[in-house]
Amino acid sequence: MSTTEMISAIGRRKASVARVYMTKGEGKIVVNGKDYKEYFPQKHIQHFLTDPFTTVEADNLYDLNVNVKGGGFNGQSQAIRMGIARALVKLNEDFRSPLKARKFLMRDARVVERKKFGRPKARKSFQFSKR
């Protein structure tokens, strides 16, 4: 991969869509114009973004520029994780099996069920009274 070459990939989770652009660099991760530690202040969310690199032992080798929209911070971070994993597989096909073993390449299709009419939530119903 040359210095000008850029690998792009898309990751999705719940209502979030993340576009990941990976270039050779020193490990900077920028999410929507901010550093990822500023964008995701929660420590338990930050590890989602670094997990794919630690899995393939490619820490601090690539810079990431990420655009993410939709959903909450948890869905966004997992969408970014999937995008990073897909970009790493495009870079080197040998990374596929360790990333696949940790399920970073699998699309988690669970989304919130819609609310039904005549009910307070999707499945919850009002108390039934026989008399």
Give an overview of the whole structure.
The protein has 131 residues and is an alpha+beta fold. The protein has one domain: Ribosomal Protein S5, domain 2, CATH 3.30.230.10. The chain contains 4 helices and 5 strands; from the N terminus they run ββββααβαα. It has a 5-stranded mixed beta sheet with strand order 1-2-5-3-4. It is elongated. The N and C termini lie far apart (74 Å).
Summarize the helices and strands and which ones pair or pack.
Layout: E1 7-13, E2 16-24, E3 29-31, E4 34-35, H1 36-39, H2 43-55, E5 62-69, H3 73-91, H4 96-101
Parallel strand pairs: 3-5
Antiparallel strand pairs: 1-2, 2-5, 3-4
CATH architecture title: 2-Layer Sandwich
CATH topology: Ribosomal Protein S5, domain 2
Number of helices: 4
Shape: elongated
Strand pairing plus helix content: what structural class? alpha+beta
The value of Rg in angstroms is: 18 Å
Reported for the largest beta sheet, the result is:
5 strands, mixed
Q: CA-to-CA gap between the ends?
A: 74 Å
What is the domain tally?
A: 1
* Share of helix, binned: 25-40%
Mean of residue pLDDT? 92
